[in-house]
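Re: that chain you flagged

S.,

Sorry for the slow reply, it's been a week of failed gels. I finally had a moment to sit down with the sequence you sent. For the record, here it is as I used it:
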Amino acid sequence: MRNRKCVFCNFVTNEKQIYCRHVVTEHNDQVPEDVEVPLEYAYSLMVNKPMGRLCTECHSNNVPFNTATLKYARFCSDKCKQKYVETVKGRMKDKYGKEHLLDDPEYQEKMINAHPNARDYVWDDTHTFRIIGTYEEDFMNKLKSLNWDPDDILAPSPHIIRYNWKDGSEHFYIPDFELPSIGLIVEIKQGNFNSSYMEHNREIEALKDAAARNLCQETNLHYIKILDKDYTEFMHDYVKSDTNRPE
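Prediction finished late last night. Pasting the structure tokens below so you have them in one place:
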């Protein structure tokens, strides 16, 4: 983010986490007594907007503030989260004029469960995610280390990415994750294959990436592919950024 000057002193930083934590630690006496989440108050000062946001689905209930991302959640309840998923599915059906099996959540679940590397990731007593492989597990561990809100994780993403191969045939894939509070679709990949394998798949991956970015332009989302557990871009552009997009 651009440089921000503390509203209470001359401290300047270009990182939102540092800014907000400076306010709550160095100027704790300035945080109103009725504020339950001091970081939310600091964030409101940083963006110069009042505290509080409404659910993007029902537009009637307040949503919690995510102290990991310093952003507000999008949904106030599981009901509204499911409504979002159903809206995405309906939008896909309207656009393509048909409903593909991949658009069926039950079919998606069967596909994931049938994968030989599928496993349950137990976040806590009330949140369990079905993931595939150690790379997705590592990403979940990363989110957990950031104190991410598990209600702000969709695994897999409800979006279906459609792309055409050079022979004109249509193909599909489901991104691994979606983080609604920062509007981010996440694809996890292992990149250190042998050169012949990478050459064979480079064109396919380029088509998939282009299709994902086109979808994001249409839906006002963002897309990132994380290779080999390298979270540098994710942290810089989407966690530490105040705009949740590359600067």
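What I noticed first: The first helix runs from residue 16 to 26.

Talk soon,
D.
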